[in-house]
């Protein structure tokens, strides 16, 4: 399994969240673990549009791979301010750079996210899965 960055927060649904410290806008993607489990990602769609409001836990899109289709869930609530068009045009970025160029969308948060995991907690979660 690939390295799990310490400076991100994680969900049990295998999304990562960056930028919580600034209190305004966070970046969301899926983890390397999820990308490895999915296999080669061939399609990414974010259903939510820029300017729309999402609630934590909402299904906001989907990722399709050679193995399956998985929903993308919003780990935080707020206003969608950007969708990564590069990953929509080149879905393989989810596999090749999940914590960098493979990010999915950005949200201006309404409140501090709850129920996010630290890198250590996410490592423990994924170590128990096969």
UniProtKB/TrEMBL annotation:
Residues 25-108 form the Lipoyl-binding domain. Its cofactor is (R)-lipoate. SUPFAM superfamilies: Single hybrid motif. Keywords: Lipoyl. The keyword Transcription regulation does not apply. GO terms for cellular component: cytosol; glycine cleavage complex. GO terms for biological process: glycine decarboxylation via glycine cleavage system; protein lipoylation. It holds the Pfam family GCV_H. The modification N6-lipoyllysine is found at residue 67. It comes from the Bacteria. The keyword Transmembrane helix does not apply. Binds 1 lipoyl cofactor covalently. Transmembrane segments: none annotated. The glycine cleavage system catalyzes the degradation of glycine. The H protein shuttles the methylamine group of glycine from the P protein to the T protein. NCBIfam families: gcvH (TIGR00527), PRK01202.1 (NF002270). The glycine cleavage system is composed of four proteins: P, T, L and H. Belongs to the GcvH family. This is Glycine cleavage system H protein. It comes from Microbispora catharanthi.
């Amino acid at each position: 399994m690939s390295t799990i960055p310490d400076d991100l927060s994680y969900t049990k649904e295998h999304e990562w969240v960056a930028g919580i410290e600034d209190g305004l806008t966070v970046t969301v993607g899926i983890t390397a673990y999820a990308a490895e489990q999915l296999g080669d990602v061939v399609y990414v769609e974010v259903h939510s549009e820029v300017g729309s409001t999402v609630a934590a836990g909402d299904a906001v899109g989907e990722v399709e791979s050679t193995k399956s289709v998985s929903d993308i869930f919003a780990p935080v609530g707020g206003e969608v301010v950007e969708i990564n068009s590069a990953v929509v045009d080149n879905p393989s970025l989810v596999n090749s750079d999940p914590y960098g160029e493979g990010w999915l969308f950005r949200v201006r948060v309404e409140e501090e996210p709850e129920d996010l995991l630290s890198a250590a907690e996410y490592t423990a979660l994924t170590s128990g899965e096969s």
